[in-house]
Amino acid sequence: MVFYYFAEQYARFQDAYLIQIYYLTMSELRFKVVDEAFNRKADPVEIPEERPEVYYGKYVFNRQKMFEYLPADTFSALCNAIDNKEPLPREVADSVAEGMRRWAIDNGARHYTHWFQPLTETTAEKHDAFVEHNGKGGVIERFNGKLLVQQEPDASSFPNGGIRNTFEARGYSAWDISSPAFIMGNTLCIPTIFISYTGESLDYKTPLLRALNSVDRAATAVAQYFDPNVSHVRSYLGWEQEYFLVDEALYSARPDLMLTGRTLMGHESAKNQQLEDHYFGAIPSRVEAFMLDLEIECHKLGIPAKTRHNEVAPNQFELAPIFEETNLANDHNLLLMSLMSEVARRHHFRVLLHEKPFAGINGSGKHNNWSLGTDTGVMLFAPGKTAKDNLQFITFVVNVMAAVHTHNALLKASIMSATNAHRLGANEAPPAIISIFTGTQLAEILRRVEESPNDDLADLAGKEGLRLNVSQIPEILLDATDRNRTSPFAFTGNRFEFRAIGSSANCAAAMLALNAAVAHQLQQFKTNVDERIANGETLRNALLEEIRTLIIQSKPIHFDGNGYSEEWRIEAERRGLDCESSTPLIFDAYLTPASIKMFSDTGVFTKVELEARNEVKWEMYTKKVQIEARVLGDLAINHVLPVATRYQSLLLDNVLKIKAIFPAEKAEELSGADMDTIEDMARHIQVIKSEVTRMVDARREANRITSEREKAIAYHDTVAPCMDVIRYHIDKLELMVDNEMWPLPKYRELLFIR
Ligand code: ADP
Ligand code: MG
Questions:
Q1: What pTM was estimated for this model as a whole?
Q2: pLDDT, position 485
């Protein structure tokens, strides 16, 4: 009887197995977990008696709670600070902290934490109890403004790309009052930014807030051409979170899933998504229970979860909320990701947020629906009713196109990661080239504006017939036939949909790059228009001339065809779009002069910050590939090869026996099939062994490199390719070895929740 190291891991999740597990072989374990998963029924969900409108936001310190728990002057001072983006006076902070503590304790909280977003792509928290000595040998629960507003987590082990030397380990977290505090479990969580002692950002929230401020300023200035009453422009985000679910028993028998988030081996199931019978299909009852439970939790935390459906691949699903202001929407997405993992456990599932958990079927993304809207209630990417509205609409759309064109390489870098790299470029996800899909109507409008800039826009907005009826755009553009799933960046009627974001990513990376790039473009646009006006042109003329220039200039980014085709790659290259496909090299786009200038002009990043962040990105890339390579090497040598040789020796045994019993010629004939299999297996085993050695050598070689960039390149060029070869041969063996001996749950077992 064999004991495998991860049986122990498995036992941690499955107490019931604690005793038997030690006596199981891996294949016995596999059958046991398959059996368990297949027999599992939906878990009950605790459905609140009240309707969502009653419990929505129950665990959020929103305006209603502020009003209830804060003195009137504190309440108005806090609202004023939030609305006008002003710092909170210290005296007010103390009073807010006291009210917040009372509210938190009334709702069962015992601890508080500054909740922040380090560069690890998850969130971080360090919990402190409210208790303090009361001077009489007992304790009292306290919380003050200082603890609320600013903390100093000893955070030397968060990635910082060299900004913080270990002897200067101080980092500060500071309350982001624009995102409300909430209670998760028994902990009051305070959304914060995270910066170094010297003021550089060490997180995603800080630069996101800077980018949102900069797009607010730049877009407001341009929107004022159309309506002087505009005083703010907000950025909105509606993400669509895709994910996979796997039964926890099966998950626990796959060390690759547990340690890397994806399967590093596994032959395709004979049936997967060919029949397209999963997408929008009936949701399995176990999954439905999970979704309902999750939505209730979301609503209690003020996350406006709205849409749920099956995705294309088996076991793949999606959740989308109602869109919100970008900073809050992003906090909510991060919160959702942790909530999902927690709720999934209650339903004996594991959530896989990895972009490509299974080869051969679709991966998961996180579409970012993005728009800008004025505080006067105008959505700037939605066509309007009048000629003036439509000129504004075209102004903003064209500026987005120009920004995306100028910064296409950077935007690609902003969504890139070791995990998302598995998804991009495959025939299912947006390709690793950024382009914009406009749809035929918008394309036609742009063409007309370009060709006859002095066309009377009233005409454009006027009659039907040959002339485009711009005021009718909403109806026309929302026509479902005019959709393109292959585009990484699509105009969808009243917003843009940035689809290349990975399912596990922090959306802030993409959102800060996009908002900053658009802000920069709008600044430039404003300067140019003002210059024309100063030279005596009319506003309308100046706008149209600048729009026209931008339409012509950004033509290469516009592509409505099939983004998956090879022709597009060639065409994109010809158009000068960034076609780099190596992740470590894609990150270089952050450090081009154009990116550095854009980020520093908009005040989002200094050069030092950009350099430090890239160090982190390269390092993370290396570590992810390194872990995968180790896990794959171990599994290949300790799990797959022993089973393969055992089966091979059974076959050899059979051949020997045939030879002992039958006359030579007959024996030759009868053992032919076995001999072929033995030879094939021997070849696969041989390649796996030598590739693992090659991979270990490549790793050793790469580890000697000191530059993070060069090391990541070495991992990409020399280590990662070995993994593909190893996997290929293991998957071949999976088809040959006796099913009863195979140690790991197979795709067909992992992928069909009942
Ligand atoms: P689909 O899958 O067809 O793209 P979904 O309904 O799944 O559409 O998701 C649409 C997402 O876009 C939702 O999160 C929705 O709130 C969001 N959304 C809709 N309008 C806007 C807008 N103007 N700005 C930002 N997000 C938006
Ligand atoms: Mg969508």
A1: 0.93
A2: 74
